[in-house]
Amino acid sequence: MTATPDRNRLALPATQVAPLLLGSTLTHDDDTGRVAVRITEVEAYLGADDPGSHAFRGQTARNTTMFGNPGHLYVYFTYGMHYCANVVCGEAGQATGLLLRAGEIVEGLDVARERRKSPRHDVDLARGPARLAQALGLNRKLDGADLFAAPLTLALPAAPVDPDLVSSGPRVGVAGVGGGSEYPWRYWLTDDPTVSRYRAAKPRIPRTVNG
DNA sequence: CAGTCGATCTGCT
DNA sequence: GCAGATCGACTGA
After folding, report:
1. Distance between CA A185 and CA A176 in Å, rounded?
2. Would you write out chain A's pLDDT as a tens digit for each of its 211 residues?
3. A90 touches strand C (CB under 7 A)
4. Cβ of residue A206 near strand B, that is under 7 Å?
5. Domains, chain A, ordered by start
6. Is the CB of A47 under 7 A from strand C?
């Protein structure tokens, strides 16, 4: 390896970093346990110009981390009960990042099972962004944390995986502009069993008031 | 397997 | 007030 730190390899728009992050390993090691996940699915968000991004409407208290330096973890709380985690990419201010959508538990299987009681199959432990965050024990306290320092370790592969093994398609859960095939910004390892099942983003139908 | 729905925080209107 | 980068439980085939 050259002297180029892995952090600098993240200082590009998320769509360019995506193939590099697939196959990488993220480890979280604290007093509640040590779990490592091999990333198999990510979703790119491109900052102020991306209607599907949290950064689209500018910087807020929640998304400040996205506007910072690459190589940090952006953790947000959503739907009243779930955490999701992004790897911040690009240069400071660009607010581009990769949502970690799915992975394979490669270390700390027992700890991951303890954190995620419901699934009957280990393949479901980190299948989906909120599940992955829960299996790794990620929460708002880790928002802004350095991915290359304790308690986190991000290990990038020496070289990106073979492009033939990578598939891409529309993002999940992003409705309207930015949710169609116009933006195929979801990337996954083809045929990997831990990749989350695709669900088309559908606008919710409001309940009728008069029941 | 596909469709539906509740849980309930955060930011914007 | 309301929609959202979701999940798990439930329903009907």
Report:
1. 14
2. 544 689 999 999 999 999 999 999 999 999 999 999 999 999 999 999 898 899 998 999 999 999 999 999 999 999 999 999 999 999 999 999 999 999 999 999 999 999 998 777 999 999 999 999 999 999 999 999 999 999 999 999 999 999 999 999 888 777 666 666 567 889 999 999 999 876 666 555 544 443 3
3. no
4. no
5. 5-189 (3.10.300.10)
6. no
